[in-house]
Write a structure and sequence with these properties.
Blueprint: H1 7-13, H2 19-37, H3 40-47, H4 63-89, H5 105-126, H6 130-133, H7 146-179, H8 181-194, H9 201-221, H10 225-244
Helix pairs in contact: 2-4, 2-7, 3-4, 4-7, 5-10, 7-8, 7-9, 7-10, 8-9, 9-10
Length: 246
Amino acid sequence: MASQQSPTARRALLPSLSSAPIILFFSGLAVLVWKFFGTQQFYLAHLRHWTVLPTSWPGFITGEGQAAAYRFLSCLLLLGVVPAVLGVAVFRKPLGQWGVSLGRRPRTALWVALSLPVFAALGAFSAAMPELRRVYPINPLASMSAAAFVAHAATYLLFYLGWEFFFRGFLLFGLEGELGAANAVLIQATMSAMLHIGDPAGEAFGGFAGGILWGVAALRTRSLLPGLVGHATLGISLDWFICFGR
């Protein structure tokens, strides 16, 4: 007759539930949902007649402009807001522990001060590359006027808020404790680089390098601000120099 295992022994055979598998599962699902349902193409094919954006706003007077705003807002929602709610409500960690803080302030200030000129210069340099000029700005109406560009930049910043919270906050700080800092940096950098497949090669490789750099910066400062400032400065300055640079 088979021996009966005690409840304690049976529990010991089960793996303990940790946060890393949940974070990785949700992250893969969130990226897929955004990649397929958060694009301009999906908006133009299925949602353009349901827009809530005023068509009189500079930069959003056509479907293409509204589709760009949809992509940015869907990134904020799917990669920013939803993971933030999950992090606070399920994992019981305040937003500050996910990097939404000034962190170690002297280090954060130094990273931000260096990021602004360095990535603005990199944006100006990259604006001369034909392969990037064919892709950016994502909103084709951004070059219409200064007001249109400001509207584009404001919505673009929402995209970077979602992106940086997801990769340098939710993934990085969520995995650091169980998988170690080096593994967490590489996982979030690799996943962010995979979203650049189909983009120009230089951008894809640069995205991987940037993911590592901003991951290290987040760990060193315990803040998302260095990555947010650096990434947004690079993207917005690139668009500015493409639209108005000579």
